[in-house]
Amino acid sequence: MILAGGFGTRLRPLTLTCPKPLVPVANVPIIRRIVEKLPDDVDKVVLAVNYKLEQLRDYFAHNDVGREVVLVEERQPLGTAGAIKNVEAEVDGPFFVFNGDVLDSLDLASFRRFHEKRGGLGTISLWEVPDPRHFGVMEMDGERIVRFVEKPQTKEEAPSHLANAGTYLLEPEVFDFIPAGKAVSVERETFPALLQAGRRLHGFPFGGYWVDAGRPDTYLHANETVLHAAGRKVLLGPGTTHEAATFDDWAVVGARCRVGAGATIARSVLLDGVTVGARATVRDSIVGPGARVGDDAVLVECVVGEGAAIEKGLLLKNVKVDPAADAS
Ligand code: GDD
Ligand code: MG
After folding, report:
1. Measuring from atom 3 of ligand 1, which residue has the nearest CA?
2. Residue 326 has what pLDDT?
3. Which of 6, 10, 7, 16 has its CA nearest to residue 288?
4. pLDDT higher than threshold 90 for residue 136
5. Is there an atom of ligand 1 within 6 Å of 195 CB?
6. Does the domain formed by 2-212 have CATH 3.90.1180.10?
7. Alpha carbons 127 and 86: distance in angstroms, whole number
8. Angle at CA of residue 69, ends 2 and 62, nearest 5°
9. DSSP 23
10. Ligand 1 mean position to 235 CA, how many Å?
11. Which of 82, 141, 227, 319 minimizes the number of CB atoms within 10 Å of its CB?
12. pTM for the full model?
């Protein structure tokens, strides 16, 4: 199952018009990247959804991802554990759970073998981070998790640098630990409750790459990481044209974009249908679908919402621009 609800608040204004799991990373929606790396014998994908459900339904109605996809709606967000409980009827046997905004090189076959060998109620993928404050952090006894601290306030409160990387393999018995019909957090409530009850959870650290695309800076990093993993520096979507533009360091440009003469795109993502005027500069920024950047405009560390128009010659630094009033 994929946790594909939540409001994507930190990725606004992009997520004002698009649910976070459908935001493309290196031109492919995050959720599609997650589905495509599932082992072949995973035949069913259950999406726990609420915010902008129709857009997700529409995406899977028009894009065949080679598996059965079931959308389970939460009338209001039930939190990460509430969302898991809410799909209980769709699941039998052990199941993978994915945070819908994480991309990584975790090998799911080894992850599963590890879980089957160690037993216990669940296995959590772990990634070592320099600053654990944005994450769920583990206290370990060998391979066993003994304490789970979600978002420690200070570095001192963090028992280690091993962070919850957002992929779980859970036994169905976990459902018994989640109360139904209310908002529950798997990180703040269910995992601590399981440990309190003396049930076993194991941690599975892995190497390669790992990114949570849920914040503007990490979203850019996710694009860069996926690009580099594919051995590329610049990605141009189908139907995109540019007139002698400069792509500096790395750049991801979606489909049907037009980049004007002498423009510079550096460490940035342009989503589908973006127009960038002549001599304009886009640096460390994200430009939403169909947005227009005027001639000679300069964007630095900005996030531009869908369909927005940036005036000619305007200089913006660290600004979030709302979507156009008529953007979907
Ligand atoms: N269905 C549903 N319902 N999904 C939800 C809900 C909800 O109420 N709330 C959040 N989600 C989804 C989000 O869309 C995302 O895919 C996933 O659950 C995790 O939520 P985030 O809001 O992205 O959490 P986070 O990034 O702050 O922290 C989580 O991820 C870290 C790794 O990136 C936690 O799991 C941390 O422990 C972890 O370290
Ligand atoms: Mg996240």
Report:
1. 5
2. 74
3. 16
4. yes
5. no
6. no
7. 27
8. 115
9. S
10. 28
11. 141
12. 0.92
